[in-house]
Amino acid sequence: MSVRDYIRERFFPHIWCPGCGHGTVLNNMLRAVDEQGIRKNDIVMVSGIGCSSRISGYVDFHTLHTLHGRALAFATGVKLSQPELTLIVPMGDGDCLAIGGNHFIHACRRNIDMTAIIMNNRIYGMTGGQFSPLSGFGIQATTSPYTNIDQAFEIVEMAKASGATFVARTTSYHVQEIASFISQAIQHKGFSVVEILSPCPTHFGRKNRLGDAVDMLEFLKQNTAKLGSKKAEDNPEAITRGIMVQRELPEYCREYERIIDKAQKG
Amino acid sequence: MNGNIKFIQGNEACAEAALYAGLDFFAGYPITPSSEIAEYMAAKLPSIGGRFIQMEDEISSMCAIVGASLTGHKVMTATSGPGFSLMQEALGYAVMTEIPCVITDVQRGGPSTGLPTQASQGDVYQSRWGTHGDHAIIALTASNHQDVFQMTVEAFNLAETYRTPVILLLDEVIGHMRERVAVPEEGEIPVVQRLRTSVPEGVDYHPYLPREDGRLPMSDFGGKHRYNVTGLYHDMWGFPTSDPKVIHGLIHHLMDKIEGNVDQITRFKEYFMEDAECVLISYGCSARSALHVVKNRRNRGERLGLLELQSLWPFPRELVRRKCFRAEYIMVVEMNMGQVLSEVKKAVDKPDRVFLANRVDGELISPTDIRNILRIIQGRGV
Asked: Are residues B296 and B153 in the same domain?
């Protein structure tokens, strides 16, 4: 099928600004789904609130547009009650790691089979450019007019420490990696996290004088390096891209089936 | 009602009744005095093929039951005041998206951490107005364990009938006290099953297009119809809208489906009301003491009656007005600063004849407390 078969065309055009990285994520996420050959009826997409969360309206799956930060909590109810469904949970950095931070670490810890896609643009875009927990020290935002003194989270490290069993990172520039990582994440039995650095030229770029959309993509190209590559070795400052964690641990729904067996045997 | 007699806590009666009503998914977070409900579910649900999950907080518990209800399951969470506060945002989501669910709030004294192990009825208004924005809600309550069983089943029935969250307001006394319950046989209390759409697969299904009778047939999420659910104002497809006409229609639908059915939703009991000159209005644990006083005074020839409310929201104004029409005075017996009192005053023809008998120190209001206040009202001194 083509990407077109997975979208709800009547709800386009989308709300994203020109140059936003989120459309690229949408496109490649659908390619990943297509590659997996999962039926549209078997996919539930749960999102929260924010620019990135609007992605759920545009796709022809079962879509649940929930509350700010709570997507993973709703998704947990959907998945545990109907474990045969494939759950995809796209979130923004503020959505997932500020207001939703507690749900994120606990979903990682439970290792419940779903795929969290974190579209990290390091800013609250929908509300007009306030700093997020991913903005980082020294960043300009509308709520840090004298510069941001909040330190940033490291999503990969946090997911790893919290117990996620599949953790990957790439950028909106590296389109093939997006499709490949999301595809592997969906296939993975357990809680999978894919962080995608996604430029927000309208707010983050403008406030921090990072140029236009193309300049921001160029930045992601120049300043990231594939895990284990020579570029990564030569340039320790570069942000690494790749599959950082891939391990097998008991998956929550499968373990619950065992609890049911145990309880029914009395 | 014969065979299965049990001597159990109110919390256990609630949990058993939830299973009787068809519950097969429960998410919760430990909090006194409601934790026994979660413990019961953790033990029992897997044995019937259902699912229990202990979430990281009450916020996520509420979210998880909404997710599970959407996929076609009967769901509940149980909590107490502080946890109920945390659930309010997602409760509003369930109101807006019209997802059936039951929230049991075993009340403790508040505000804040308050009195975790003592009795109060302070969440009457929280259950009505805890979440933001205009909306309607159903809240039930019960004063003994047999009624806890009955009201729990009815909470599930009303949730399905009106596609709404229903709040079951218990209290610490009812939750923890042990009492006799005759567990009804299957079919003894009717159980309402979810109304599902008959629209076949491949045909456009409108999840938010009410039928002529105002009801919205559901389609199990993850099943044969793909649709959108959002907490934003939405059209008949479930898609966000800012069309004033659609918004106007939706908010009125959300209000009317409950406020317009107050007679069908109202649950109450009455004792000695036929010729009552003094009407006591009470609910939950307070109604036990109120009933004691009424019976006692009747023996002495005083014309006291008790109207026990078992549904607090939508508030049965017309019922209260009608029942109190001939009363010389009315006394609301409750364990808060007068939450139901305010509603009764709004309902009756002579609000200046409505008095409050309350206790807000964590101790159960006793018949003696009520009698003393009654004597003051009657001008007989304490």
From this structure: no
ω into residue A83 within 30 of 0, thus cis? no
> Best of A49, A62, A105 to disrupt the B interface by mutation (most B CBs within 10 Å)?
A62
Where residue B381 falls among pLDDT bands split at 50, 70, 90? confident
The confidence band for B382, taking pLDDT boundaries of 50, 70 and 90, is low
**Structural domain total, chain A:** 1
Q: Which residues pair with A115 in a beta bridge?
A: A88, A192
Q: Count residue pairs from A and B with Cβ separation < 8 A.
A: 128
Q: Answer yes or no: do A64 and B221 touch at CB < 8 A.
A: yes
Residue B292 has pLDDT above 70, yes or no: yes
Q: Which of B183, B201, B236 is the last residue of a domain?
A: B183
Residue with tokens 């009744």: B17
Q: CA-to-CA distance for A225 and A10, rounded, in angstroms? A: 38
Assign residue B169 the CATH number of its domain. 3.40.50.970
- DSSP one-letter code for B34: T
> Residue A45 maps to which CATH number?
3.40.50.970
Domain that holds residue A142: 3-265
Threshold 0.80, pTM exceeds:
yes
User: Could you count the other beta carbons within 10 Å of the beta carbon of residue B220?
Assistant: 18
CATH number at residue B365: 3.40.50.920
Q: Name the residue facing A77 among B27, B43, B239 (closest C-beta).
A: B27
Q: What is the C-alpha separation between B313 and B339, in angstroms, rounded?
A: 12
Residue A119 belongs to what H/E stretch? strand A114-120
**Boundaries of domain holding B49:** 4-183
